[in-house]
Amino acid sequence: MPKYPMLEYLWIVPLLPLLGSAANGIFGAKWPNKIVNWVAIGSTGLSFLAALKAVREFFDYFAENHHLFQKAFFTWIAAGNFRAGFDLQMDQLTVVMVLVVTGVGWLIHIYATGYMAHEGGYRRFFSYLNLFMFFMLILVLAANYVLLFVGWEGVGLSSYLLIGFYFLKKSASDAGKKAFIVNRIGDFGFMLGMFLLFKTFGTLDFAALFAKADPWPADAMGHLGTFTIASLLLFTGACGKSAQLPLYVWLPDAMEGPTPVSALIHAATMVTAGVYVVARSHILFTHAPTAMLVVAIVGCATAFFAATIGLVQRDIKKVLAYSTVSQLGYMFLACGVGAFSAGIFHLMTHAFFKALLFLAAGSVIHALGGEQDMNHMGGLSKKIRWTYVTMLTATLAIAGFPPFAGFFSKDSILLSAFENEYGGRNAGYALYGFGLATALLTAFYMFRLIFLTFHGKQRYDEHHVHVHESPNNMLAPLMILALLSIVGGWLAAPAFLPGGTDYFAKFLQPVFGGVEVAAAQAGARSLELWLAGVAVVTAFVGAMVAYWLYLKRPEKADGLVKSMNPAYTTLLNKYYVDELYAAVVVKPLLWISTKVLWKAADVAGIDGTVNGIAEGATAIGDGVRHTQSGNTRSYAVWVVVGAIAIIAVIFFWPFGGKTVIGMVR
Amino acid sequence: MVPTNYYVILSAILFGLGVLAFIFKRNIITIFMSIELMLNAVNLAFVAFSQALGKLDGQVFVLFVIVVAAAEAAVGLGIIILIARSRQTLNVERVDLLKL
Predict the structure, then answer these.
(1) Which of A263, A531, A640, B37 is deepest in the core (most CB within 10 A)?
(2) A168-187 tens-digit pLDDT
(3) What confidence tens digit (pLDDT) does each residue in A110-128 have?
(4) What is the SS3 assignment for A257-303?
């Protein structure tokens, strides 16, 4: 018996969902829904338990060895001095990610058994969902960039399959394609980044690569050195996967998928993969201050930009989608200012409350029989009480009210931005300012969502819609997530007490080590309290404005829309970014593809050559055919002509004649 | 002694006449005869060179050619008779379907 049995067989953790996926996908056609449920929930639940066991063993292992656990299971690619193995690793960062992925994933699986109960393609859905779990676990457990990339592409595939789950709907299949193609742009940068890293350091294994890279001198600010270029290329991939400017456009459209998918893939786990990669590569990023500043600015800009769009959306899921983009921006902002643990902390709390928001929204949609437009909701708080309570919890969490989880994670991000070391003090203040403004907008649009959905006048037709609370297998995950949304942030809570520490940051200390900006220095304590106070007041103001506009004086909201019509229309149309991309990128690309590559190169060039040769042969044959007239005398003439020609060659050919005569002799 | 040139020139004239008849005549029998004429023109050249060079090879060839010509005449005349029966004509212009 090995000392750490689960760690020695760490591959079991990702394998279980894969088996579930295969079982449901291959054999599930004849199975009743109940068995499909058991396979799907059982495989992910066992995977969660296996992950818990592995984490426990890892803590023992770490206490003994003081470094991360890594094990090579087999060599996958070996070419020259390049080696990519099926190597898995476990460190504190992986612990957080694995538990979030399996734990939240499992809850969402349970929820989905209720939500999808009346939908077609039941086993297909769970097969895809399990497949996603497999790839996501590969992504977070991988010990080298190549294996990580396998998971990275795999979750992209699952995301594509699940966005286009209702593939008969044109908008759904289009959204799936959009997600896949936009991600491909980012992945291209990611791959270039990997190539550059391999060229420079000769390995893509995390431990070896970072050990080699660490002693190198950091690039100067504004200088495009290897670190800066590699980091920016990796960040391009992260931008695609985590929906940051300018590649965020796929995420709002991804809401075409079923709601549990939105919760699991497009809010809690997959979209945070970019943040994970940046945090995992923190040694590269901290050697490249320019890249750090870019990450911070992109994150901050995305957070603000997406939040403004979220203000006016009518579709309940679209609001949450833009909110996700915005919160992901916060995470990148944290990474960009060097507070990786704050970013990961927000990733974790966001996984709780955003999954909860989506699931609760799904419960609302379920209750209203598929209605997603908030203009046709209202006054639901009495009728679906549990959904309301849990969703309100999540809203308080995301808006940043203490003592909910979002308060602590957002606070540590804003504090880190305020103390930003990369790009100077003023950059830090600007990032903080925009971060704070985003917090205001977040509180506003989230409470707008709550008030429009659950309060005020009832705006749906009661004769057509039978409002009903969701079944228990949907409510149970909501309550667990609600609990996590409250207590999930308390790990960082003691930092506010005199002499207390941020346990989460301390926990991740072995991973992020010296690069971590000490968020809870003794001198910063009063500053932290001040900033936290400002953040809470800001959130409160946002919530109050929403209350005033949407509950107290609804007519004011309409008046505001009228008086600020150009701004409102711009926001409602999402700054016309989709239209801009369509005009600048998609149209020219389609034109080139159609006119040049298809019509000119393929049809005229390649097909033209092949068909031309064939047609030429036909034409020659057609011409020569007429010599075979059937007339004997014409054959006789040809014989004579041929004979004369041969004689002429023998005697008069300038070069060959003599040789032929010689041969005759 | 007649010079070899004379024989060769006569042979060439006969061969040329054979070719012209072969091309321009329409009657199958005549065409057939023109082929025989060409063969014999060649025979004449063979014999003439054999005489001039003092070797017997040419004369042996002539014997071969005569044998082959006899065989060819047998087969050819058989075909001609069949054509005459089926088409009721000996004009090659009318025999252009490559089958009987």
Answers:
(1) A263
(2) 889 999 999 999 999 999 99
(3) 999 888 888 788 889 999 9
(4) CCHHHHHHHHHHCHHHHHHHHHHHCHHHHHCCHHHHHHHHHHHHHHH
Within 8 A of A640 by CB-CB distance, chain B residues are: 19, 22-23
Q: Does B26 touch chain A (CB under 8 A)?
A: yes
Contacts of B26 in chain A (CB under 8 A): 633
Give the C-alpha separation, A124 to A109, whole Å: 13
Q: Tell me the two tokens of residue A359.
A: 């699931």
* CA gap B76, B66 in Å, rounded: 15
**Statement: residue A631 has pLDDT above 70:** yes
d(CA A125, CA B68): 87
Q: pTM value?
A: 0.80
User: Is the per-residue pLDDT at A255 higher than 80?
Assistant: yes
pLDDT of residue A663: 54
CATH architecture for the domain at B4-94: Orthogonal Bundle (1.10)
Residue A609 has pLDDT above 70, yes or no: yes
What are A's interface residues with B at a Cβ cutoff of 8 A? Answer: 629-633, 636-637, 640
**Residue A160 CB neighbours (<10 A):** 22
Mutate to test the interface with A, among B79, B96, B98, B99 (most CBs of A within 10 A): B96
Question: Taking the domains of chain B in order of start, what are their residue ranges?
Answer: 4-94
Task: Check A636 against B23: CB less than 8 A apart.
Answer: yes
Could you report how far apart the first and last alpha carbons of chain A are, in Å? 93
* CB spacing of B92 vs A631 below 8 angstroms: yes
